[in-house]
Every structure is written in structure tokens, then in C-alpha cells.
Amino acid sequence: MNSRKLYMISMVLVIASLVLSACGAPRPVPTAAPTQVPTTVAPTQAPTQVPPTPAPTSVPPTAESTQAPAAAAKVEPLYMPRNVQAAYDNGTRSLDGKPGPKYWQNKAEHNISLTVAPPSLTISATEDITYTNNSPDYLSALPVRLYLNVRRPEAQREETKTADFLNAGVQIDEFRINGVVVPWSPLPGSPLTAPTIGLPLPLAPGESVQLSFKWHFDLSPAYKHEGAFDPTSFFIGYFFPRITPYNDTDLVSAVPGFDTEDFTYRSGREQFNDFADFTVSVNVPKNFVVWATGDLQNPDEVLQPTYAQRLKDSLTSDQVINIAQPEEVQQGKVTAQTDSVTWRWQAENVPDFAIGLSDHYVWDAGSVVVDPATNRRASVQAAYPATAADYKTMVQTGKDVLTFGSTQWPGVPYPYSKTTVFVGGGDEEYPMMANDGPEPPPLPGATVRFIASHEILHSYFPFYMGIDERRYPLFDEGWTTIFEYLFALEDMGKEQADAIFKAVRSGNIVAPISGIDIPIITPADSTRGRVTSSNAYEKPALAYLALKDLLGDEAFKAALQEFMARWHGKHPLPWDMFNTFNAISPEDLTWFFNNWFFESHFVDLAAAGLDKTNDGYAVQVKNAGGFAIPFDVQAVYADGTTELFHQTPRIWKDSTEAVTVTLPVTREVKAVLLDSGIFNDVNAANNSWPAGPAQDPNAPVIAQAKNDTGTAALTMTLLPKSKQSGPGQYGMPSGVTVVLSVLPASKTPEEAIKDNATNFKVKFTDSDIVAAEPIAGYPSKVLRSSVNLGGVEYGYDSYAFTTPAATYQIILLVQYLPAVETMRETTYPALLKTVVVDPQ
Ligand SMILES: [Zn+2]
Fold this sequence. Notes:
This protein is α+β, with helices and mostly antiparallel strands.
């Protein structure tokens, strides 16, 4: 932990104590840092006391086996929709969690030759698809997935788009079946993004058909996950015709058996594709560099020798190598100098293929061992405009993330030969590629490293695991969000990782939005808006974290890795995951999966009593929200010291409504506090016992500071609680912190501001310190800047003023959002008017 983080923590504690002392809340907790508190586990929760469940019950009960095991707590079998039940009945999936004896999936080989010549936005291509029917059925019609038809004006979309987003979609110029030209005439009524063609003869089981296309489309400058990022930097994704997955659960669809759900272009609910092999040629003018999914087949043809050698060197080197600078590319030194250059790529068994290209990007590369057992290395590349300064360290970021994914979580060697992070504005994942923005999105705590870690860790879910992302984002976004958090824990420490998770992720489940508590298992193609996001990202990530806490890291990882080993390269359903965890874990987890995935809950604990017993103390805990969450009971002893007693979610196994926690202690406990950490409690006001006096929700909060000798004091009234802000927030948006200090009168406002700016690592010049509105009637100075504290960008405003008694300083810090500028204009002046100076 570096000094900046320590400073940040101490600052947060100062603020926490200010708020506690000011708002009239009970003060059961001395302000010792949580990390200084010894953690113990109450013996009643020790894993050894949970009897291992006999193997037969680890298979979730089905309709045939619903008789509850004798003497066990009643466990409701997991609900199974009829279309899912059919897959198990038909033997394509097995209740032991493995693929069934009749499991199949269809496979395609794509041979694509694509021509693009920026700044023309038109992409044109020829494509041959060899599609093999591995199913037991005769297929008489094939839905052709044309994702980019979502840009046609009449398409269904889930977000409002500007006119420049719209275009004509994918235009099929020629179509052949087994070499014979046939009219491109999709069946009437077939979905816009899955136009369906009838076959002259049904495709028999085990047989292949060749479909050939000539097609073109216009890339849009209104990019989302693909598009023209600038006139000569394109990210080409979702672009080619392919056959949608024929599968065992889409029993009733526009073409029964096929996924024909329209693509609505929503972040976090992207695609569902079969695995395919790709041979892709990208024809570009000279001096364009191309990056893509898969392996470059002809570096010596497309690159001049120096640059081809640098690329080769990067594949075996631990160093980060700059392959090319924009000037070298533009001076004609890097690519072959024929008018047109054809970059040839190959990728096998991937569910998608994407391409980035530019004539003015920096190109860095390196590589890292991703399989320590075999010393297999993976290439890491970054392609970015020189103005995206944060990307100078992106190859190192990629190497760190691949190492983390390969050796820690999920702890499966990175399954591909390469990853490339390309700046194309998307913040979106593709197999072996991420298309990210030049700057992080305006989210608290987001850095390009943080965003890239998320996109790269998506390599496992959805790509390696073949996830239907539109119906079950609990897999791809859920698992990636827990991996992102676990990476952040290691990368920036618990304080920072928790702060980001609460702000960006679990903070979203606090608000009582209509539908927000709908069970996670609800097919995401039946939900929309915040409900979809919450069920995709934060709720499943919390479910997995709770399960990790319940099982312990070793058992949790063993079950996760077994699930991945069984299902990678296939199309698992959530029930395959639940069944595998039940089969591999030492206990039946059906109650847990029911609670987290199949029921409507939220997070709200309440302390309801504290009694002396023969064994120590009994703490009554109510679970008003209902989720089986882990939490800590913090005991406050008579002498003011504290101790944490961690409870795993197993405590809720017999009742998710209320439990008694035993504290096996002999010392006098005068108060307890329940803390669920990043499991954001919607009402933290009832988490302590004895309960404090009822709080007036409209009461203002007072912050105070005195100097060392107590001869001067400063008081500031924070704004009353506002309906616009979340629970526990006062007036200003989440993340605002205030620091008050009283300094010796010998210090001038300028000196005070400079001292603190140095403490906060704020870059400034003397001319940045300017006169501000009077505070408490005294002229003041202000420095407005921003500061990066442990990877989080804060808006930093430091005001200082001097009275005859002392110099006073107020520092306002807010996690950097566009709203900061508005706050500087409106909220801050109102706040500063509430300052009271008290020379004593
Ligand atoms: Zn994601």
C-alpha cells in the first residue's frame, strides 16, 4: 500500500468521524481502521460443523426425485422452465452437470475477404461459409445473423440513437447455395437481424452446406461497439453474415430450434454465436496497420523487415516493445508499399471475429507466459492514438491481466494466443480483442486499466465458454464483474477496490427501482433498462462472491474450474453451472442458488437484540432484504476496543429471515454493528444495537474542526438529506467528501492551499490559486484542480481564508464526474455560505 492510499484512508476516516459525530447517530464504533481489527470466525459458523452432504443429494432434484432427503432441511428444487427441462429430458444435458450423451452443436468455417479504404466508410466483402449440421434434425431453413441490420431505421433498439447512427445495414449483393446463385429473398416475416433463407433440400444430420455471399455495408461514424472512430481509424465488429445457433432450448422461435431473437444493441447483452473457424483477408491501402482476432499469417508480406522483426521479437520477449510510431507509419516505413496490402488472419474455434485498423496509431507489443506448466506465451498488443497517453502502459496492463486470469481467477491458462487493446471508443470485448475508449468512461474509479481488465477478463465468459449473452448475462457480465473486482483487489488494494465496486457496481441495487429485485435467472431478453444491468452485473457478481465466501476459495475455485472444463467451447445453461457446483462441492447448494438466482431479494440487515448468555453474547440479526449474504458482526467492548466476527452466507441456510449469532467472548460487549461491506445495505441506519435515537431524515449534518490548541474552530453545515441522493447521502451526490482544518494564523491562505495541494499530489502553478467568494465574511482563495488518488480521479477544490485568530481551510473532494463542474457552480457556493468561524 503506498502513502497516497494511506493518506486517502486516513482522510476517509476523518470524514467518517465528522459525519458520525455530527449527525447524532449512535457511536458504537471507535474510529479505528477496519484493517486494524482482528478478524475471528465464530465457532458456530466453522465449516467443519457442516456435515458433508452425501453424494446422491448433490444432484438437484428433478420432477422424478422431489422426495426430500430424510432429516435434511427442506430444499426446494431449482425451478426449470419447460424449454430447459426439455433439454434434460432429451439427453442433450445431464443433471450431473455434464453435457448430456446427446449434446451437439453446429459448426461453421468462414472464409472472408474484406476490402476497406478509409476514409470511405464502405466495407465490401466476399464470404464462404461451410456450415455443418451436427444436430439429429433435418434443417430446412437457416436464419442468417446480420447484426448490423440493427442500424436500419426500422430495427428494434434499446437505446435512443441520433440520425447518424442509422444506415442501410448489411446489403447482400450476391448469394449462392452450394455454388449456385439464388435470389437473396429471406422468408417473409423473418427477423430483421436474422433474415431466414429456405434451403432447396433440407440439410441432413452430419451434412454440410456451403453458403456464399458478396455483401457490403457502410461503417458509421456514430460508433457504439463498432464504427469509424476517426476518419482513418475503424473498428469493424459484428460485421459478417453467419448462421445463428441451432440449439436445444429455443424450441419456439421464428425458426423453431434457432436463436432468432432480434439484436437490439444493448451494452452487456450482446450476442449468441456458434463456435467457428475463420480465415480472413483484410485488403487495405498501404500505410494502414490492421489488428484482428486470431494470428497474423503473413507478417513478412505486410510489414517491412524491421517491423516484422520487432513483432516477432515481442512474441518471445518479456519487454514491452514499441513496434511502430505514427510518423513511421505515415512515412511509409512500416507496411509494404504496394498500393493495396492484404493482411491474412486465422482463428480457430472462436465465437466471433473483429478487426481494428488505422494509419496513425501507436503500436506496442509484448508477451507473457500464460501457462506456467508448458511455458506457453500469449502476445499482448495495444493500438492507440498518440493523444491517448494512458495507453502507453496498456501492454503491461494486458500482461498483468492475462497473468491474473491464468493463475488466479478463474485460474485457467488464457485460452488464446493473443489479446489486442484497440482504441475505437467501444468499451467492448471481442475474442482476443478489446475495443476501448481513449479515456475511461465517466464512472467513479474508472481508469483505462480498470476498463481493459474487465474487457480482457471477458475472454473466459462469454468467449471461451460459448455463452448466450443476451439471455444469460449472469454468466458473461456476472463472472467478469467478480473477476474485475478480484483483479482490482490485488491491483489497488481492498479500500480502493471496495470503493469502486460500491460506486460502480453494487451501489446500483440500492435504489428502489421498479423491477430491480426480479430474480437473476429471469431471461435477460425478457427484461430491459436498469433491471437488465442489475441482473447482469452486480447481482450475479455478488452471488458469486457470496458463494466464494461460503465455500472458501479452494472449493469455490475447484467447482468453477470443473464447470469451465466441462463446458468450454460449448453452450452451457445456468442449470449446468448450478448442477456442476452441486456435484463438485462438498455440500448441496440448491438452497443458496434458489435464494440468489430464483427469488426476489435485496440487501438489508437489521440488528434486533444483544443478550448475555452462558456462552458469551447472542446477537439477533434480521434479514429484511432476504439475500444470503456474508457479513461481519463488529463487537464493541466496554473499553472501546472492537473485534470482528465474520459470518459466511451458510448462516442463512435454515432461515433467510432471522438468525442468532453467537459471540463466544468473555469480555463485556456494550454494542454491536453489522457490516455487509460491498454488499450494499439499503438501510444501514438499523445495523447497530443498541439502536440509536431515531434520526430526522431532514436534519442537517454538521462538520467541525478545531486547531490543536482549541483556540479556533470551524463549523460547516452540510446540506440536508435529499430525495435525489441515495440513503446516507446528504444533499450532494455520492462520493463528496469534505475536509476542514484550522491552521496557525501565521500561515497565509496561499501557503495553506499549497501545503495541501502537495499532500494530495495536485499539480498546480501559483497562478492557479485565485480569489474566491468570501467565506464567513472573510476574503478567500481557491485552487480548483483534479487529483488521482490510487487510480481514482477526484475533483479537488481547496479554499482557504484567514481571520485574526487563524487560517481556515476547507477541501472539497468529489470523485470526478461531469457533474463536478455543475457542483462548482451551484452546490459549493451554497455550502460555503454555511461556514461558521468561531475564534475561541
Ligand atoms: Zn462486460
